[in-house]
Amino acid sequence: MENKEFDTIIVGGSYAGLSAAMALGRSLRSVLIIDSGLSCNRQTPHSHNFLT
Predict the structure, then answer these.
(1) Full-prediction pTM beyond 0.90?
(2) Which residues of 23-45 are buried (b: 16+ CB within 10 A; e: fewer)?
(3) E strand intervals along 1-52
């Protein structure tokens, strides 16, 4: 397996993580996104307009 160096590693592929990856990608930085694929609010899929 080949070793690859990344400029940035982002943990979590939700809105903030993907937004950061897009900005870094536009800056020609190498980015690795690590995500489990599970939604953070999978326990409450029908909660809307709930301020925390």
Answers:
(1) no
(2) ebeeeeeebeeeeeeeeeeeeee
(3) 8-11, 31-34
Q: Which residue has the tokens 């489990």?
A: 36
Place of tokens 């326990």: 43
Q: Which two tokens stand for residue 34?
A: 């690590």
- Which long-range CB contacts under 8 A does 11-18 form with residues at least 24 apart? 11/35, 13/37, 14/40
pLDDT band for 14, please (50, 70, 90 cuts): confident
Cα 36 from Cα 24, distance rounded (Å): 21
Token couple for 43? 């326990």
Residue 26: what pLDDT?
A: 94
Confidence of residue 13 (pLDDT cuts 50, 70, 90): confident
